[in-house]
Structures are given as structure tokens and as C-alpha cells.
């Protein structure tokens, strides 16, 4: 689960990490009040969306002005103007994809005088099974690019869970960032606070880009991106309450209600599959035959008729879907349940696009019989290749 920058900073503040003062707002009038309460003389108006690259992003609407999704303001009036330009408009960044994201809230923050920008992140390193730090002097820019072009500028280390963050971890960070004296002390302090926040809140990732040194010699977290381990959310109701569902895909939210593993994608062929591996293989073979999958969907091993119906409805509700491929291996799952689920869903929502069904395994004959006798326009397929070829052909013919 992801949260907004201002929410992440509130958590960091709770743990004593240095962040700027700021106020989240939803309207230009609130922006004025926020700017007045902060006092200035420099403010930053920051779009709150669940995507990075906001500073270099561009708004789709001309009325939103030329500047990006993070703007420096030198007066209360300017804060108000920027807020009015940005609210309700669509920000496109390298992380949002071409469709962009609508900006519905802003964070009005104290402006900092930046001396240097660094990068710092914490994540779970699956190779070592530990919490790892990634730090670099190359802050404020795309870390993937730094990793690719100048990997020597990235320092990583992991932390032994038995000891937690130790003074030497702080010294490693200070050394990597070229910090000495008072700033090195601040770095040590920051490392232990961030580590505590990360572990206690069950974060999956915490990224500070940039971590800055101000002109008056303070280390500060100027941006904060946090995601949480969904499996641990049950023990953090405070974190769950931060969820902003308007930032999430409506189809994915619907799918999560039925405990379906669903991820929306950009292609044209909706897939309903059981088992993550089979789902991946199905997506691959659709691509191999020249089309793109519209989603990843694993209905799971023991799906009920209701679950299958919900899944089918989510797929058909996607306007990008031009054809549907149902690919089920009935191990624990029974093919007749799938057939009944598909029929129930089609009765409810209709079927406007070609549907190819490939069933194999438990009760396969019964499943096929149910589908044939339903009178639905289902194209049966024998194996994975056959199924992919048939759905791609049907989609192309229907265009
Ligand atoms: P994003 O990573 O989404 O572009 P950031 O929060 O990192 O958003 O902001 C982009 C840039 O804007 C930062 O690298 C920094 O240079 C500047 N910036 C952000 N917040 C402030 C602030 N409070 N004061 C001064 N400059 C800021
Ligand atoms: Mg940033």
C-alpha cells in the first residue's frame, strides 16, 4: 500500500526525523491559510499523487501553467495562483504513464535553501533477507539512471536484525555522502530513526530523494515516498486509515474485495486464469501471438462461483478489453465451477467481445458440457497455443 508524501513525512516526524513544516490542502483558499500559517518567505507547492518525478512532470491542461508538479512560490499570492492552477488538473510524470494522475490535494511546505541533494532509501533486500540501505551523493535525480551509468556512486549495506542500526551504519552513510563533524552526527541519528520507523511500521520501501543539506548545515528529508507491506497492514490500523483509494485503480479495488490477484495492464485481451504461474504463461503467449494482455488475473486455487463471476465482471468492465481468454487448469479448482461462474457473469453483464475458453483438469467434460449447452458464443480451445491463437485471431477479425 502506498501513501502520499505529506503522510509519509508525518510518520517520519513522529520518529524525530528532520522534515520541513507543511500543511496538506484541498482548495486554493486553504492554500492561502496554510501559506500564512507557515509564514514564508519561501514556500513550495507540491502535488500529492502516488507517483514520483512530480518536479519534472507536466500538466496536461494549459491552464495549469508551464511549471511542473512541484513549484517554488515567493509570496502568498503565488501560492494561491499555483494551487488554483494545479488542483483538479492532470499531472503526467515518468511514473504516471501517459494518462497522468489528477491532482486533488497539495502539500504547502516551507521552502528550504538547498546546499546539496543526496539519495537515501531503505528496502527489504530479498537476497540477504535483511533491511538494506541504499545511499548516493547523486540525489534529486533518477536513481535507476545513476545505478546504470555510475554504479560506483551508490553505496548499499544491510542491517543485522539482531542488532538493529548501529553507530557504524551511521558512519558508513556519512562517509558515503562525504559528511563530517556535526553533519556526520546528524546522519547517524537519521539512520537509526529511519530504521526504527521502517521496521516498526512494516514498511516495504522508504525513499528519501532528495535528502538535503541546507545552507545552514542541517540534514533534511525533502521528499518521502513510503510503501507498506500489505501482509502486515492488519496490525497497523493507523496506516490503513491513510489509504487514498482515489489513487488506486478502481478495478483493482473491486478485485481486492473478492480476494482476487488482479493487476490492470494496457493491452486488449482480458485474461482469467488460475495460478500465478499459469497467468504469467498466458500473458506471455498472448504477446507471442501478437497482442497484449489487458490484465493479470489469478482467481486462485479454490475460487467459488461468486469469485469467478466477480472476476469476469471486472474484466468485461474494462473498455480496453477486445477479447477474453479464460485459461483454467482444474486441480483444486473444478472446471464446472468456472463454467458456471462464466455463464452467471455473462447473463448479468452480457458478452460484447469474443470469448475463448480453455479448460483442463478436474470435471473438464462437465465444464465443457455446461458451456456448450448454455448457448453462449464460446470458442473452445484445446491447449494454451490453440487458445492464444484463437483469441488473437478473433480479436483481429472483430476490428
Ligand atoms: P519529485 O521527486 O516527485 O519530483 P520532490 O519532492 O523530490 O518531488 O521535489 C522535486 C525537487 O523540488 C527537489 O529535488 C527539490 O530540488 C525541490 N524541492 C522539493 N521540496 C522542496 C522544499 N521544501 N524546498 C525547496 N526545494 C524543494
Ligand atoms: Mg523526489
UniProtKB/TrEMBL annotation:
Q: Which cofactor does it need?
A: Mg(2+)
Q: Which residues form the ATP-grasp domain?
A: 9-264
Superkingdom of the source?
Bacteria
| Cofactor binding note from Swiss-Prot or TrEMBL | Binds 1 Mg(2+) ion per subunit.
Q: Please give the subunit comment from the record.
A: Heterotetramer of two alpha and two beta subunits.
As for family, the record states:
Belongs to the succinate/malate CoA ligase beta subunit family.
Stated name of the protein: Succinate--CoA ligase [ADP-forming] subunit beta
Q: Which organism is it from?
A: Segnochrobactrum spirostomi
Name of the gene: sucC
